[in-house]
Write a structure and sequence with these properties.
- The protein is mainly α and 90 residues long.
- The chain has one domain (3-89): Arc Repressor Mutant, subunit A (Orthogonal Bundle).
- It is built from 5 helices and 3 strands.
- It has a 3-stranded antiparallel sheet with strand order 1-3-2.
């Protein structure tokens, strides 16, 4: 996915809010997320579809949203640790 599509998806305040909630708290259903925002469950589901299309979240068959953030977070932790070691070594 191109970065411009990711940024375009996150430009919507509701999608950004949903993405941040998932990143902070982990997997949730559209119903659970709808309780935390001011839009319907159907609207949340549509926003999640867009986030899924750009690769920011993954939909699980059981109706749960699994954050792409966990795997990316692990990758970034590893990269930051390598960078920290490189900077400390200089």
């Amino acid at each position: 996915m191109r970065p411009i599509q990711v940024f375009a998806a996150l430009a919507d305040p509701t999608r950004l809010d949903l993405f941040e909630r998932l990143a902070a708290t982990g997997p949730a259903t559209a119903t659970e997320l709808a309780r935390t925002v001011s839009v319907s469950r159907q609207a949340v589901a549509k926003h999640l579809t867009i986030l899924d299309e750009v690769g920011l979240v993954e939909r699980a068959p059981a109706g749960r949203v699994v954050g792409w953030v966990a795997s990316v977070g692990d990758e970034w932790d590893s990269r930051l640790d390598r960078l920290r070691r490189a900077v400390d070594a200089t």
